[in-house]
Amino acid sequence: MERAGGAVYGEVKQIKADSKYGGFTGTEEKVRYILIEVEQSWLNEVDSQIIAATDYTWGYEFKKGNNYLIYIQEADGELVSSPCSPTIEMSSSEQAVEWFGEGLRPKQQVNLEYNMWFMVELDIDMYMIVAAVILMIILIRFMRARSRRQGRV
User: In terms of domains, do 30 and 104 share one?
Assistant: First the structure.
């Protein structure tokens, strides 16, 4: 567990896929984000809800409403569940308490459900480029029409 950075036990509330990019034109990587209602944590004290990222292709297949013991670590400012770290579905935290001892309770109550709303699978960069091109076409046509009208007066 020390190598992973810690573990949490809790219920999966939401699962969303999103795309991460290495810069504006960088490579796309699909990521699955899991909103977890934390009951206990080990090694790190966390809030009552956390969002953990996992690999879309190789990550664990979480199910909404189920409880899990998830090994997590922090990477690039976000919590990550590595495909190489164990994730164990459990109906209660009793087995985890047997393994690791009594865990830490959440440090504060938070609601992160609204953060999950912003995670979408769409390629937003492409939509921004298309919108900018359309806006430029409209602007050029407007300016041409305006200059033609001024030339007639």
Answer: yes
